[in-house]
TrEMBL record:
UniProt-recorded name of the protein: Adenylosuccinate lyase family protein
UniProt xrefs under PANTHER family: ADENYLOSUCCINATE LYASE, ADENYLOSUCCINATE LYASE C-TERMINAL DOMAIN-CONTAINING PROTEIN
Superkingdom classification of source: Bacteria
Keyword terms, alphabetized: Lyase
Location of the Adenylosuccinate lyase C-terminal domain: 402-482
Listed InterPro entries: AdenyloSucc_lyase_C, Fumarase/histidase_N, Fumarate_lyase_CS, Fumarate_lyase_fam, Fumarate_lyase_N, L-Aspartase-like
Family assignment from sequence similarity: Belongs to the class-II fumarase/aspartase family.
Location of region: Disordered: 1-27
Pfam family, any one: Lyase_1
């Protein structure tokens, strides 16, 4: 077989001769691969595999092959060419490290890939190489491949997000009656329920997931030719009396991408929209991880992560059980804004009819967001499905707040009884006993001492100070949030 992709002889023919021989020979796969050694938030996950260099290479090959099928279906090339090219459209047949190194020559990986693809096809089926990449340009292939890679990765991200929604919905219902203390600006504030906390987690994840679903459904094909005019395709299509826009729409359908209104070479909103949707999902995940990290501190102890052998241990302190799932989710959420800003900056710097430099910086930023979201949501699904709520600790921490946790209610109910005809006098008197209670005196006794028994009986004071009687619309809010995602609960 005359195919040369991935062989030393092929590399010698296609790499710039100006490169030092030692450098050319040292670029092996193991040395250049990114396995995520410093990125435990996504390393080893399904998203990592779906966004690998091999996965992107396969997406580029898929775009090239499907385009040949479109052309064949339209009668613009011989009907047997796609099948003749198909065996060469397997990423495993290429030296990825070599392609990556050679991409420096033209500024993108499509150019060296085409050289190797054509070389392979000439070896297998010499007459089929000519139509490859007909009327297309590098940006068409790479942008469409990135959208295709994103679509494939979003499937697993959204599946994990729905697992999270299901777990949080169950958690919210199960703990709807678990009275807890709410915390604002790090301090105890009012009574709440753990169920409402879980429901609010669900509300954030649910909104972000719905937005990401909409984004996934609208990921567009990019197909404009060398300068976005579809000129080469128009010339070819006219010969067969076919519409270039119809051919592009056929390709979009075959790839499972949306058919855009027009090519989007320098309109980078499809990329920024995808990046923002991923960042929002990571922000919602980060909120949950932040709360779990706080609540799992030993001195609070309200929740604990699911345990698994070998996870959460310390290299020096064997007694520790670190909440590593939350740590890694939080790290992903913290990293996301930087990559999102990079996409926005690149979009704002897009110039002419194909961006120079700003287009190139998008690729890694978008891939990192996909990886971070994929890794974080896989871990969040495991976290929420196995989260343990320690109701005894929840009750203990609520008790620490004492009756002052309902001081807002007391102020509203009692202050008007103490005005003595002077507006604001009652509020001042209640504030005084709150201050004395903070200094160590019993609030219930202080309250009894300033409110006439005829105005408020002992039993009424007891009920007034019961946190369970001041939960507002907690149950209704839980119900509304959980019911807002009815289709997801059983997904």
């Amino acid at each position: 077989m005359a195919a040369c992709a991935g062989t030393s002889s092929c590399r010698a023919k296609t790499r710039p001769s100006s490169w030092p021989t030692r450098e050319r020979n040292s670029l092996g796969s193991a040395e250049t691969a990114d396995y995520g050694l410093l990125s435990p938030a996504w390393a080893g996950t399904r998203a990592a595999a779906l966004t690998s260099d091999e996965a992107l290479l396969q997406a580029m090959l898929d775009v090239e092959l499907e385009w040949l099928r479109v052309l064949a279906s339209a009668g613009l090339i011989n009907s047997g060419i796609p099948d003749a090219v198909a065996p060469a459209c397997q990423a495993s047949r290429y030296d990825i490290a070599d392609l990556a190194a050679r991409a420096q020559g033209g500024g993108n990986p499509v150019i060296p890939l085409l050289a190797d693809l054509r070389a392979l096809v000439r070896g297998d089926a010499p007459g089929a190489a000519g139509p490859i990449h007909k009327a297309a340009t590098s940006q068409d292939i790479l942008d469409s491949a990135l959208m295709l890679m994103a679509a494939r990765t979003l499937e697993t991200i959204l599946a994990d997000a729905r697992r999270v929604e299901t777990a949080l919905g169950a958690l919210a219902r199960r703990h709807a009656g678990t009275v807890s203390v709410a915390r604002t600006l790090t301090q105890h504030s009012l009574p709440s329920t753990f169920g409402l906390k879980a429901a609010q987690w669900l509300h954030g994840i649910g909104q972000a997931t719905a937005a990401l679903e909409n984004t996934a459904a609208s990921l567009p094909l990019q197909w404009g030719g060398a300068s976005g005019t579809m000129a080469a395709l128009t010339t070819a299509a006219d010969a067969a009396d076919r519409s270039p826009l119809a051919l592009a729409a056929d390709l979009a359908g075959r790839l499972g991408l949306a058919d855009p209104v027009a090519p989007w070479q320098t309109n980078r909103l499809p990329v920024t929209r995808l990046g923002a949707s991923l960042a929002d999902l990571l922000a919602a995940a980060g909120k949950i991880s932040n709360d779990v990290l706080l609540l799992s501190r030993p001195e609070i102890g309200e929740v604990s992560e699911p345990r698994e052998a070998g996870r959460g241990g310390s290299s020096a302190m064997p007694q520790k059980q670190n909440p590593v799932l939350s740590v890694l989710i939080r790290s992903a959420a913290l990293a996301a804004p930087g990559y999102t800003a990079m996409l926005q900056a690149a979009a704002g710097a897009a110039d002419d009819d194909r961006p120079g430099g700003s287009w190139h910086v998008e690729w890694q930023a978008l891939r990192q967001l996909l990886r971070l979201a994929g890794g974080a949501l896989a871990k969040l699904a495991e976290l929420t499905e196995g989260l343990t709520v320690h109701t005894d600790a929840v009750a203990r921490n609520l008790e620490l707040a004492g009756p002052l946790v309902v001081s807002e209610k007391v102020m509203a109910r009692v202050a008007p009884l103490l005005d003595d005809g002077v507006p604001g006098q009652g509020k001042k008197r209640v504030q005084e006993i709150v201050a004395r209670s903070l200094a160590g005196e019993d609030f219930a006794e202080l309250l009894r001492g300033i409110v006439p028994a005829g105005e408020l009986a002992d039993q009424e004071i007891t009920e007034l100070l019961d946190p369970a009687n001041y939960l507002g619309q907690s149950d209704a809010l839980i119900s509304r949030i959980v019911s807002a995602y009815p289709g997801r609960m059983n997904a």
